[in-house]
Design a protein that fits this description.
Length: 160
């Protein structure tokens, strides 16, 4: 099925953001695990896997539209050096992704590609949920202090 080239470009732009997110969230998860923050590791790892699944759906859609998924033009991975910075880096990426996804949704509406639009709305919903979770973590750090937050992210039940 021959798709619109503008829509393919927009889907590839969203895909690029999702690929950055996979790497960034996976790295942050493993940093958290290295620091002994198993709960934070689990949350970040879970989000990395969600991004991978969304990327898979984007790739399938781009291929269906006779486009070529672009897996080469990756942007910068933001790496946090402490827990608050990890959360901040992920939040910045989510806000950036939100704008790109929203622009792509608007394009799909104008081109009447409602299937691509629905896929993007699903991604936007997941983006908003994760953004809300990150903002909640920032609020917790502010309310209880970074030391107490870090302690809350340790899981004593897991053996190495």
């Amino acid at each position: 099925m021959k798709g619109d080239k503008e829509i393919t470009r927009a889907l590839n732009k969203v895909l690029g953001q999702s690929l950055i997110a996979i790497n960034q969230y996976f790295l942050h998860a493993r940093i958290a695990r290295h620091w002994g923050l198993e709960s934070l590791n689990d949350s970040l790892y879970k989000q990395s896997i969600a991004e991978m699944k969304w990327s898979d759906e984007l790739i399938a859609r781009i291929l269906l539209l006779d486009g070529l998924p672009n897996l080469q033009e990756l942007g910068k991975v933001l790496v946090g050096e402490d827990v608050p910075e990890i959360i901040d880096c992920n939040l910045r990426l989510e806000k950036q992704k939100f704008d790109i996804i929203t622009d792509a949704i608007t394009l799909c509406e104008s081109k009447r590609d409602y299937v691509s639009r629905q896929l993007l709305v699903t991604l936007k919903d997941g983006n908003e949920e994760y953004q809300d979770w990150l903002e909640t973590q920032q609020d917790l750090i502010k309310d209880i202090g970074v030391e107490n937050y870090i302690q809350s992210q340790m899981d004593d039940d897991k053996a190495p």
